[in-house]
Every structure is written in C-alpha cells, then in structure tokens.
Design a protein that fits this description.
mainly alpha
Length: 74
C-alpha cells in the first residue's frame, strides 16, 4: 500500500498543486462521499469502518504529493 501511494504521488507530480489544508479537505470530502452519499451509514459500524480508511487513503495521497513537491523544490 505504501509503495502504491508513492507511485501515484510521483505520477501526479507537477500536475496537481496541493497543501496540507487541501489534503484535509479532500479527506473529509472522501469520507462524506463514502459515508453519506453512498449510504455507508446504513450499514452501521461496517460502513464507518470502510469510510474512515477510504478518507485516510485520500488524505495520505495528497500529503505524499505535497511532500514530493516540497522535496522537488529543495
């Protein structure tokens, strides 16, 4: 999983600009999309357990992209 995030962030390097705030916002949006729009709340704890890691993965994807952008500038 970790290697997959690194590869995705390297592919998007230079195409997308991001910041830690953007990562948080996209993580929250991913959670709401999974839990509310796709009706994960109907499944109780199972829906919550699926939605949280989904949002976490989106957050880490954008944070890794931000880190790669910063190291590229250095």
């Amino acid at each position: 999983m970790k290697h997959d995030l690194i590869l995705r962030s390297e592919e998007n390097l230079g195409e997308k600009k991001t910041s830690p705030c953007t990562a948080v916002i996209y993580g929250i949006v991913a959670f709401l999309k999974s839990y509310v729009l796709r009706k994960g709340w109907r499944y109780g704890n199972d829906g919550l357990v699926i939605s949280i890691p989904n949002a976490n993965g989106v957050f880490y994807k954008y944070i890794k992209l931000y880190e790669n952008e910063r190291f590229k500038k250095l």
